[in-house]
Design goal:
Layout (H helix, E strand, L loop, with lengths): L1 H21 L5 H23 L3 H24 L3 H4 L15 H26 L8 H9 L4 H24 L2 H21 L2 H18 L2 H22 L10 H12 L1 H18 L5 H13 L11 H10 L12 H36 L3 H20 L2 H27 L11 H12 L1
Helix pairs in contact: 1-2, 1-3, 2-3, 2-12, 3-15, 5-7, 5-8, 5-17, 7-8, 7-9, 7-16, 7-17, 8-9, 9-10, 9-16, 12-15, 13-17, 15-16, 16-17
Length: 441
């Protein structure tokens, strides 16, 4: 009981200092804290039903450490994000792409390529929503596949986000048409893919962006967007096999369980079953994750590098199970399995520092339609790591494909701009970005 009370004090203390450091409901730190609070509710479920007091305690410990890292970054940088936010539309236009026409053409080309990736995905693996077991189809479709399938998960959301911010500055018919076309294609892809994870990849970067550019009206819009997402998730659940006959009340409880208890089920299993029997993994989980990243790119065979979540699933369901389902551990579980409670505290502290630093970059210098889109999506990548754990897996799925997206769009822009003679390739990009950001400020 004492641990549960301590965990309550820790999670509310961490949430308070995170809120005090940002004072913005749409900041990445505050939204992530909300996700952690759902995990904590799931931990309380295991405490009430099975007496597992350590599960909510470790979630609370990591949440407090996360907020502490964010607070320390704000203290070191001497910033007050709430007072430094400005009205985005009133700032002068600036960009690391000085020739807007060529950037827009580059954006159109990458958009077409992104849509082609989506078409190739559905052509090769079918449409998960129309299958009897959509989760099984999605898991089998991406396991061990080449980079072109993985790239889809970053290319289309990133290009849609870039088009969204670009049209906010330009307001031309062409820029608005591209934005609405990409948003329509994105919604279609989300529905056909049939996964709440895919929807989060589109929704959360938009919400983070609204938290930077927003007035109160934009804040309300983003809140409504989150509510619509939750309701849509509940609706989609009834389209899955085995849920359509459930009463609404029972289906709602199942949905809440998916957001809470199911998210920390892997952590609970680790703390009370795996680690007591086998001991800490002492860094091997992250090595497994690195091997899994190599398997994603087909550098090594997938069979020799299963991800840790898959290993946990087989431990629980039986070694004879051959499917590639995984048991989600969250970032708390990965850190705990490798380094114990100290790993949770130190690791989440570092994550808090990084997330808050990126947010400070967003509000201080990224009044650029492209850089802001990049940092918003990067914040989502970090959130995805917290939800699913598997740092290297998320890096392979989203981080590296995001880097490839950046390389492609920079290459296209430079090639298209060369005839104008106004692109200084020799000039360091970092200095160029710094000068542009300085002008905006």
């Amino acid at each position: 009981m004492l641990l549960v009370l301590t965990s309550g004090i820790l999670i509310f203390s961490g949430t308070f200092i995170a809120w005090w450091s940002n004072r913005n409901l749409l900041s990445p730190i505050v939204i992530t804290m909300g996700v952690f609070f759902l995990f904590y509710i799931g931990g309380l479920f295991f405490w009430i039903t099975q007496g597992h007091v350590l599960t909510p305690y470790y979630v609370a410990l990591g949440t407090f450490s996360y907020g502490l890292g964010a607070f320390l970054l704000v203290a070191i940088k001497r910033v007050r994000p709430s007072s430094e936010r400005q009205i985005f539309s009133e700032l002068p236009f600036c960009s690391i792409f000085p020739l807007e026409k060529y950037f827009f053409i580059s954006l159109i080309i990458v958009s077409a390529f992104s849509v082609l990736l989506g078409a190739m995905y559905f052509y090769e693996v079918g449409i998960p929503l129309f299958t009897e077991w959509s989760s099984f189809t999605r898991t089998e479709a991406i396991a061990g596949r080449g980079l072109y399938i993985r790239s889809l998960f970053s290319f289309l959301p990133m290009v849609a986000l870039s088009a969204f911010f670009y049209q906010k500055y330009q307001g031309t018919l062409a820029s608005k048409a591209l934005m609405w076309l990409l948003l329509f294609i994105s919604c279609l892809y989300i529905i056909l893919y049939g996964s709440r994870g895919g929807a989060i990849a589109y929704i959360m970067p938009f919400v983070f962006g609204q938290g930077v550019i927003s007035t109160n009206k934009a804040t309300y819009k983003s809140m409504i967007l989150i509510i619509v997402f939750v309701l849509a998730g509940l609706f989609l659940q009834y389209s899955y096999y085995g849920y359509s006959n459930l009463p609404l009340s029972k289906g709602t409880l199942v949905f809440i369980g998916r957001l809470t208890a199911q998210q920390v089920e892997g952590l609970d299993y680790l703390v009370y079953n795996v680690v007591p029997q086998r001991g800490l993994y002492l860094g091997r989980i992250h090595i497994m994750g690195f091997k899994g990243m190599l398997a994603t790119f087909r550098i090594i065979p997938y069979e020799v590098a299963p991800v840790f979540g898959e290993i946990l699933f087989r431990m629980r369901a039986g070694e004879e199970v051959a499917t590639r389902f995984t048991l989600v551990t969250t970032t708390f579980g990965d850190l705990y399995a490798d380094f114990g409670p100290f790993g949770i505290f130190a690791g989440m502290f570092i994550y808090g520092l990084i997330t808050q630093y990126l947010y400070v970059c967003m509000i201080r210098g990224c009044k650029d339609h492209f850089l802001l889109a990049f940092f918003c999506y990067l914040q989502y990548v970090i959130l995805a790591i917290h939800i699913g754990g598997d740092f290297f897996g998320v890096l392979a799925n989203k981080g590296i494909s995001l880097a490839i997206f950046l390389i492609i769009i920079f290459f296209l822009y430079v090639v298209l701009s060369l005839p104008s003679g106004r692109v200084f390739i020799v000039r360091p990009l970092r200095a160029k970005i710094y000068n542009r950001v300085k002008e905006c400020r």
